[in-house]
Amino acid sequence: MFAPPEAYLVLSAAVFCIGVFGLLTRKNALLFLMSVELMLNAANINLVAFSFYWGNITGQTFSLFTMALAAAEVAIGIGIILVLYRNFNDIDVTEATTMRW
């Protein structure tokens, strides 16, 4: 009826690898945020899959905390992106190396 845990682990590994690839190859700050979200969602898939496999609710609880962390990360990240756009008229992260105090 349900998929075996290995299927969830393969899905999670694929989503995590896509997130790492996006983090390493993009210059756009919004794509950075989306890549980090993909990596956090891959961790959530693992937590929920193992929680279901072992029959306890601990993994699902940690998954909720991870979602709260992701929401806080997006709120701070959008603020940083707005500052980048205001100072450089672009959200390319390579331009931010010229920022001074």
TrEMBL record:
Enzyme class, first EC level, given as a word: oxidoreductase
Stretch forming the signal peptide: none
MF (Gene Ontology): NADH dehydrogenase (quinone) (non-electrogenic) activity
Subcellular location, principal: membrane
Domain of life (superkingdom): Archaea
Recorded topology in the membrane: Multi-pass membrane protein
A Pfam family assignment: Oxidored_q2
Subcellular location per the Swiss-Prot or TrEMBL entry: Membrane
Family, as annotated: Belongs to the complex I subunit 4L family.
Identification of the protein by name: NADH-quinone oxidoreductase subunit NuoK
